[in-house]
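mind reviewing both lines:
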Amino acid sequence: MALSDDAKLWRGIVCTLVGGIGWGFSGACGQYLFTYQDVRPDWLTVVRMVIAGVLLCLSFFPMHRAAMKPIFKPGSHWLWLLIYAMGGLMISQFGYLTAVDYTNSGTATMLVYFNPVFILLAVCLMQTRYPQKRELLAIACALAGTFFVATHGDITHLAISAQGLFWGLASALGIAVYTILPAKFLSRYPTQALMGVGMLVGGLLTGFLIDFPSIEFNLDFHGILALILIILLGTIVAFMLYMQGVADLGSVKASMIACVEPISAAVFSVVFFGTQFVLMDYVGFACILATIFILGKR
């Protein structure tokens, strides 16, 4: 039985909201692991990417086997796949988790929402044009928001660690890379299956580079539960729900509703960890979120 337009609308809204909150909650789980468990961001990045990659491949490869078969044959697409996996997915994951470690899940998630500016600048370069007035306003809002979050309005010092600021923006850049590359160079491959391969490749290569087996970690029952929630709820379930939301609502509306992610991450950070935000943080958050609505306006 086909769903009515109203039913699809509400399904899209609910799926996108739950997916965004799931992403926000996974950030809080990461903060819990770094605060109360003996876990490093690079270790967590590898575990999250490899397991998520395996699960995504198992979920989507059977239905896209024919379309994905060419990706295993040598060719120039291997270079783009490597950039997608390491410069996109890995940097976005590692950068975000490292920013959470240096700051908190709310601040880190908000910094990641600088990614539309990187995407916009890349689009302008590829189309060899200057940003439009509306786009310049979005860039100004994102820069102002990052300034307020990073300095609280005082240019003489940083209110958050320089490492946290750097890795938060690096994560935003990684998201821009893995958003643009598939559409430009890897468009022949289904998104879900491609992300599974990218996660797996990025996770395995990162594990090799950091000598993963030598990294010590210690997790109790609650730590294992948080890890499971990060991988399942914060990666697989959230991603699939968001994709359903995009299918029902369109990418513009879905991206706006998904702004619940940084808000929920900030709420979880306050409730679970007692994180203190000041007025300038909220001003910065509002400026950064405004970029989504400015760019999404028709």
In short: The chain has one domain: 13-64+76-296. The chain has a mean pLDDT of 90.
